[in-house]
Write a structure and sequence with these properties.
121 residues, mainly alpha, 0% strand, transmembrane helix, membrane, transmembrane
Amino acid sequence: MMVAPVVVVVVVVVVAVVVIVEEVEVVVVVEVVVVVVVVVVVVIVVVVVVVVVIVVVVVVLVVVVAVVVISVVVVVVVVVVVVEVVVVVVVVVEVVVVVVVVVVVIQGVVVVVVVVEVVAI
């Protein structure tokens, strides 16, 4: 992505250096070209390393966000299940209370009937 502009700059620099030092020995031009190539390689390596670091950071952030979202979902599901269990327990307790009240009322009626029968005798 950034390699093409770097290559264009390198070519322009190399041509300018060759034009400027055309009367100087070829060895100087070769040394300049080697230095420019080394600089280009270093720049490309640095760009690749930066891109890899950015990708790794983004992947780590995505994983962290996914873990947080999953944790929140699990907590919400647990809370919903606990609330449902509490509702079921409350309904069961209400049914037991109603059954106890009915049994007490029936026993009271039986007691009243027995008392009435005893008084009638």
